[in-house]
Write a structure and sequence with these properties.
Blueprint: E1 2-5, E2 10-15, E3 23-25, H1 32-57, E4 74-77, E5 90-93, H2 95-98
Antiparallel strand pairs: 1-2, 2-3, 4-5
């Protein structure tokens, strides 16, 4: 059996071999075995691909103690108090600023 799904205008086929007594989908009962084999192959491929992606994007262990002291910045933040007119600012200082 075949019909056109009205919302998407896609052709769908009835497969009585699918779980729960059958379903409408992209294969019919005669093509179920091939579809299922292809589906399992895809799942295996996806699992391998995802494992490779996870391995390549996992964070590397950092053995350093952070940036050199000349690159560390200190921030002074003034937060305005409600009802008092003050300006908020952020000032960064590092070793280069002190030489001016």
């Amino acid at each position: 059996m075949t019909h056109t799904y009205p919302t998407t205008n896609r052709e769908e086929h009835w497969c009585s071999k699918c779980q729960s007594g059958g379903r409408w989908g992209n294969h019919d009962s005669a093509g179920h075995e091939k579809w299922y084999k292809d589906f399992l192959d895809f799942l295996a491929y996806k699992e391998t691909r995802d494992a490779k992606r996870t391995a390549s994007t996992s964070p590397k262990s950092d053995t350093s103690n952070g940036p050199p002291s000349s690159m560390k910045k200190l921030a002074n933040v003034v937060v305005p108090v409600p009802g008092i007119a003050r300006r908020a600012y952020v000032a960064f200082t590092d070793s280069d600023d002190e030489s001016f």
